[in-house]
Every structure is written in C-alpha cells, then in structure tokens.
Amino acid sequence: MKITNIRFAKLVVPLITPFKTSMRTVENIEDLVVIIETDTGEVGYGSAPSTPVITGDTHESIKAAIELVFWPKLRSMAIENLNDIITIIQSSMVNNTSAKAALEIAIYDLWGKMYKSPLNKLLGGGSEQLRTDITISLDPIDKMVESSLQAIDNGFDVLKIKIGNNISQDIDRVKAIYQAIGDKALLRLDVNQGWTAKQTVYAAKVFESENIQLELIEQPVKADDIAGLKYISDRVNTPIMADESAFSPKQVIELLSNKCVDIINIKLMKTGGLSNAIAIADIAKTYQVDCMIGCMLEGSIAVAAAAHLASAKSAAITKIDLDGPALGKFDPVKGGVLFDKSAIKLNDLPGLGIESIDGLIDLK
Ligand SMILES: C[C@H](N)C(=O)N[C@H](CCC(=O)O)C(=O)O
Ligand SMILES: [Mg+2]
C-alpha cells in the first residue's frame, strides 16, 4: 500500500458551552484534518487542533510543516515500512508535535486498514469500552457547582475541574464542588500552570487537612518548572500529574527518575503521535507509574487514535480524559469512536474505524 496524495480540510464543531481554562477560552472544536490517499484506494485520517499556548502549533503552522518538510519525504512510501515512516516523521523537524501527531494518526489508520484490523488489536488488543471523565470549565463558583451536578446527572462519575486563575477562589471552588457532590464523583483538578509551587503545597495541605478527597492535581506550575513539581511532590500526599511538562519520552524519564510527579498525562498532540505515546506508556510501566490519556479540545478523529492506544495500553493508562468530542454539539465523524455520556465505544472496523466525515471544508 503506497502513499499517493495528501489533502487538508478544516472541521468546526460548536461547543455546547464555552471551554474555559486558566490559559484560554474556546467556543468551537476546530481541527485541521489530514487525509492521506493510497494506491489501493484506502484513505487514512488524522487531525490536529490549534493549541498555540500549549504546543506552539496553529493550523497554519501544522499545514506548512507537513507541506514543506514531511510530505516531500513521505510521498510514495509504503505503509508496510511503518518504522521508516515514523522515523522520518519524528526526525525531520524538531517540535511541531501537532503536525507529527496528525500525520502519525493517519499513517496508523492506514496501517490498520492494510492489515484489516482495528488499531487497538494491532497494538496488542484490549477492551472496546472505555470511560472518560468530563471537564468542568473555569467559571464563577455557583456555575461550576451547577455544571458539576449536571455532569453527574448526565452519568459522569469523574470530573476534571479547571482552576488556576486565583488561588483563594480556586480553593473555594474546590471546597464548594466537593461539598455539593459528596462521593457521587471523583475529582481531578487541572490547574493548567496557574499556581506557584508554594501555592500548590498550601492548597493541597488545605484540602488534605479538611479531608477533601482528590484523585490528583494536574500541572499546577509552569511547564518548565520541574524543580517546582519536585518541591510539591516532596511535600504533599495528593498525587501530582504532569501535563504541559511532559511532551517527550526523555522529559518523562527525567520527571519519573527524579520522582517529580506521580502520574503522566499522555496526549498525542504533545508526543507527536502514537509512537512516542506508546514509548511513554512503556516507560511509565517500568517505573510503575500510572498514566492518563488526555486530549486537547479536539474532535473525534484524533481522539479515536488516543482511545485505541488507551485500549491497548491499559496496563499503564489507567485514567481517561478524552472528553473533547463529548463537549461538542454533534460529532461529524461517522464510525470511529462512539460517545454515549461517559462511555466511549470502539468499533471493529479496520484502523480507527472511521466511515465518513460530514462538513469537511477543503483547504487548498
Ligand atoms: C479537553 C481535555 N479534557 C482538557 O482539559 N485538556 C486540557 C487542554 C485543552 C486545551 O486547552 O485545548 C488539559 O488537559 O490541559
Ligand atoms: Mg491538563
């Protein structure tokens, strides 16, 4: 199966409610879709959102990197030579992880199609049923309490609470949500780099002293504040998870060998796709550290790839934050992963199992 052509399109899905973190507010899921065509007529789908504050990548930079750097090397390569393709994607350019992810996702989709197997089976096999948490956007306290109760009514039992814009209001937010929901849901906090190390220790000790049960605190400090993560982990009992500090396998080895964090959030848009995500899951397993599979605010093409990975790597990936598509008003992707409240179901079609995509806006 030889690569013959590449096309780009845009996919826009309005959100049910704006997505708000300490870093940004977004109204739509907007993906750059990469469609790789082959001489057998099979097409592979990949996608990437624009997350300049996290990856530094925009749709324009992703498309330019693919057109100018990767595509001239990948055109006419055979999907049978998966490892060679991955080496080219990972070594032709530094950074640009979203472009690498979109390409790798489309290539792995084709790899599954070539072997007529769902991707999770080729990666080792695993359950077709997963369960995701849901994100509660950073809002005034009353709104966050209401959104949390609504999420529980909608069948979610793990809530990812976005905080990080004001330490004392953040502590009040968590206390109010915890008081309102009791033991009906597990709370994971995502600070998105909004606190200092000392503020994090203070907040965690407040929660611990008041018996507020938290599953974890995600990325409390700036992405490059690795000493801050270590400072926190040495002083609190609440598990600390790295997100924006953990892009590459090398960074994960540094974080884990120095005991800076307890959990790693793997996202394809940070790792540059599936190959490094698999490496990180395997590294974490050797350190006996759990991983979360996460996503940016993105749609169900890339999330399908993340779900197949989570299915196959369930020994390491024990936590799932793949709610991006569930936050949209509809899913234009037919086949692929099916969302029903907190349930994510993989189908048994080859590759990512995507049958068709409505509403693609072709890009030249
Ligand atoms: C959508 C997912 N639940 C999530 O919260 N991801 C964020 C980053 C999302 C973005 O800004 O696109 C995270 O884990 O930090
Ligand atoms: Mg995060």
TrEMBL record:
GO terms for molecular function: metal ion binding; racemase and epimerase activity, acting on amino acids and derivatives. Its EC number is 5.1.1.-. The active site is at residues 162, 267. Substrate binds at residues 24, 135, 160, 295, 297, 321, 323. InterPro entries: Dipeptide_epimerase, Enolase-like_C_sf, Enolase-like_N, Enolase_C-like, Mandelate_racemase_C, Mandelate_racemase_N_dom. Residues 141-239 form the Mandelate racemase/muconate lactonizing enzyme C-terminal domain. Pfam families: MR_MLE_C, MR_MLE_N. Coiled coil: none annotated. Mg(2+) binds at residues 190, 218, 243. Binds 1 Mg(2+) ion per subunit. Keywords: Isomerase, Magnesium, Metal-binding. Its cofactor is Mg(2+). GO terms for biological process: peptide metabolic process. Belongs to the mandelate racemase/muconate lactonizing enzyme family. This is Dipeptide epimerase. It comes from Thalassotalea marina. The gene is tcbD.
